[in-house]
Amino acid sequence: MKKKTLRSLPDSQLCSKRVLVRLDLNVPIDDSGHVTDDTRIRASIPTLEYILKRGGRPIVLSHFGRPKGKPDPRYTLQPVADVLESLCGHRVVFCETTDTDEAIKATHELPHGEILLLENTRFLVGEESNDEGLARTLAELGDLFVNDAFGAAHRAHASTAGVARQLHPAVAGLLMERELDYLGGALADPKHPFVAILGGSKISGKIDVIRALLPKVDALLIGGAMACTFYKAMGYEVGNSLVEPDRIDLARELIDTSGTRLILPHDAMVARNMDDGSNAHTVKRDAIPADEAMFDIGPGTAQSYARAIASAKTVLWNGPMGVFEKPPFDAGTLAVARAMADSTDHGAITIVGGGDSAAAVTGARLAARMSHVSTGGGASLEFLEGKELPGVAALDDA
């Protein structure tokens, strides 16, 4: 079901209105209070600019961290307000409360051209349980609702799904619209050849995605430690590699039913442990030593995966190929990232499904060379599994 979007509203519905905007500003902050990755903040700015240019007054809600339903100074959004102001070039007023008369008063007093950021929604009892009373209170903060927090769209919280049931119009922001267009397009009508790459440590976290994608893709490339559960199902020695014993039968079933579409690494980078990178070496997938473990796909696999990506017209990637935080076990992940960037340059649609994959392409400074880098790891996975996202379902139908 298509949803109404911010761009579908006439300017008259924004001008002088209090536009309650749910963003995902849940960014990493170090011990000194500095934001260490502002990707999600930057991704939110186009929606805020769109509202401001049409005379709207943005009232921003966001969660941050896991403060367990009560105020905790470690999880204040104050540092985020400072970064948002420096990045967008508009004054950002920070309000230390969210569901109070003080907050409502601040929304009415907000001058044109400025942004109001309210305190962490997870300080509120009833946020994560989607309390209807809290949702009604939050609805008093605006004249219409814009949900641009794709990264939180898979949670039925008061500030996402709840408020959208109470305040109308309730529409998707520019980032939300982009996420749904790219991810939805990849599922509904991909250009072929369609290649998907799935990595990470466990099959259990990706099984629904694998099952959803196998009928749609021309090739599904597997990487990361999850490959070792497939190896075990094939009868190979996996040494000390991470394996899910209760998923071996499932892995065998997937191998037997996927034909030639499911592709596993044919070589592996192994070592005694992930901190023993200086002694890392490459072996064939059926020759992993009993006292070592796989920590990355091997160089031969990286090259063959790069060729598969180069031949594709749609590429979807979720999950690293190895322990990408620790060289030399980042080589496979970087090879996939570079191959996708090159594929984008040659006209392919390339989609990175958030989480560690997004962190990897950002760290490699390749994010700008992807068609789309999702801001929502868990939300991306659930969307790709075909699940309904509560934060999207609650928005007005187009």
Supply the number of structural domains. 2
For the record, the CATH architecture of the largest domain stands as: 3-Layer(aba) Sandwich
CATH superfamily of the largest domain: Phosphoglycerate kinase, N-terminal domain
Oligomeric state of the chains present here: single chain
Q: List how many beta strands DSSP finds.
A: 15
Which fold does the CATH topology of the largest domain refer to? Rossmann fold
> Number of DSSP helices?
14
- Helix content percent band: 25-40%
Low-confidence stretches: none
Strand/helix succession: EHEHEHEHEHEHEHEHHEEEEHEHEHEHH
Roughly how many Å is the radius of gyration? 23 Å
Strand content: 15-25%
Largest sheet: 6 strands, parallel
Determine the structural class based on helices, strands and strand pairing: alpha/beta
Q: What's the average pLDDT?
A: 95
- What is the 3D shape? elongated
In whole angstroms, how far apart are the ends? 8 Å
Strand numbers in spatial order across the main sheet: 3-4-2-1-5-6
Mind telling me the CATH class of the largest domain? Alpha Beta
Features:
single chain, 398 residues, alpha/beta, Rossmann fold, 2 domains, six-stranded parallel sheet, 35% helix, 15% strand, elongated
